[in-house]
Write a structure and sequence with these properties.
about 280 residues; alpha+beta; Ribosomal Protein S5, domain 2; Alpha-Beta Plaits; eleven-stranded mixed beta sheet; binds 4-diphosphocytidyl-2-C-methyl-D-erythritol 2-phosphate; binds adenosine-5'-diphosphate; ATP binding; nucleotide-binding
């Protein structure tokens, strides 16, 4: 038997860091939403009691470092499952991009194996399991639009993000999330974006207010390390995106656009100096 799951990318409409915690993680406030750029997973039962990961993408780990592998192993261990699974990852989300590709694959693995192995777990139970593997995985289990607090694992759904176009551009640089949080001076942040104001804008489906209230304190670190991310932001603004922000720890920059007629100009303009550009719809 086989099951299929879609694993969409996320963007952070706002990301604030409140403080560094004694456990080394940072207390955050983020509003995240899914976009229609997705990996596709095929999960097939195997007779042999083992976990196999395969992918057409040559640039991700296929061993126990893969987050989908870790999710399958966690379920097997926790529920005493002695069956094997082959997980094929058809990757479309850029890797280490601030778009939670690995986290979404892990969340999709939890959802898919819950069906394949008929475990009957609720989304809340899957989120709790996911939080053992990564801060963004609980959000990816349910998706939609949500306020995330704690280290990112405490979620409140928000209804509902207005439909819009999202242009994503990933410069050819690698950014490590741990490195960006590590370089952040949480006690020196002066310009905190407001989760309450962004939530209000989303709930009111006020696209212009959403664009005006975008903010991410991690830009401070990543833009200093990689000035090309700032240049990409400036290019997206001058090409006419309604609101522009770096997603997560970066380096992907996203632009929100309400009018479809504006999309080709922004997309083509960015392709001039960035290979990885995507024009997708928001997923509400
Ligand atoms: C920045 C964000 C924003 O959505 O996303 P990405 O840029 O990675 O997509 C997240 O907070 C990333 O979540 P995720 O990628 O799941 O992080 P984890 O695997 O849990 O942690 C990786 C490392 O980041 C740091 N970390 C992560 C989350 C957090 N609230 N505080 C932290 O300090 C820790 O050093 C940790 O060891
Ligand atoms: N299924 C997966 N897809 C992509 N990357 C993965 C996966 N499993 C583990 N990784 C590793 O996780 C790291 C972060 O990847 P990713 O989730 O794409 O980035 P981000 O956290 O910036 O959104 C990369 O170093 C990558 O090698």
């Amino acid at each position: 038997m086989k099951v299929y799951e879609k694993a969409p990318a996320k963007i952070n409409l706002m990301l604030d860091v409140l403080r560094k915690r004694p456990d080394g993680f940072h207390e955050v406030e983020m509003i995240m939403t899914m976009v229609d750029l997705a990996d596709r997973l095929e999960l097939s039962e195997m007779k042999r009691d083992t976990i196999i990961i395969s992918s057409q993408a040559g640039y991700i780990p296929l061993d126990e470092k893969n987050l989908a592998f870790q999710a399958a192993r966690l379920l097997k261990e926790r529920y005493g499952i002695s069956r094997g699974v082959h997980i094929h990852l058809d990757k479309h989300i850029p890797v280490a991009a601030g778009l939670a590709g690995g986290s979404s694959d892990a969340a999709a693995t939890l959802r898919g194996l819950n069906r394949l192995w008929r475990l009957g777990l609720s989304h809340t139970e899957l989120q709790e399991l996911g939080s053992e593997l990564g801060s963004d995985i609980p959000f990816c289990v349910t998706g939609g639009t949500a306020l995330a607090t704690g280290r990112g694992e405490k979620l409140e759904p928000i209804f509902s993000m207005p439909q819009c176009w999202v242009i994503l551009a990933k410069p050819p640089i690698n950014v490590s999330t741990a490195d960006v949080y590590g370089k952040l001076r949480a006690d020196r942040i002066t310009n905190h974006p407001s989760a309450a104001l962004m939530r209000e804008a989303v709930e009111a489906r006020d696209f212009q207010a959403i664009c005006g209230r975008l903010g991410n304190v991690l830009e401070e670190v990543t833009l200093k390390l990689h000035p090309e991310v700032l240049r990409l932001k400036e290019a997206m603004i001058s090409l006419g995106a309604d609101g522009v922000l770096m997603s997560g720890s970066g380096p992907t920059v996203f632009g929100l656009v309400s009018k479809q007629s504006k999309v080709p100009r922004i997309y083509n303009g960015l392709r001039g100096f960035c290979n990885e550009v995507y024009a997708v719809r928001s997923l509400c």
